[in-house]
Specification:
Elements lengths: L1 H21 L2 E4 L2 E4 L3 H13 L20
Antiparallel strand pairs: 1-2
């Protein structure tokens, strides 16, 4: 289930990146829309990929990362 959520987040980030690349900002009369910063989107994609989102292997194994202060 967590993999499904990560995959959905990755798909949403990729879709946002495509939209931001096509047009960053537009205005229609009084309505103005500005998309998220492309750097933030790319950072989110990189974090999700680093955590294993989008990994299509079906071996059932997961990674465990332990952060330690030294």
């Amino acid at each position: 289930m967590a993999d499904d959520i990560q995959k959905a987040r990755l798909d949403a980030y990729v879709a946002a990146e495509i939209k931001a690349l096509n047009s960053q900002e537009y205005q229609d009369g009084n309505v103005k829309n500005r998309r998220a910063d492309l750097g933030d989107i790319s950072s989110g994609i990189n974090k999700l990929l680093a955590s294993g989102a989008g990994n299509t292997s079906s071996c059932g194994r997961s990674k465990r990362v332990i952060l330690r202060d030294t």
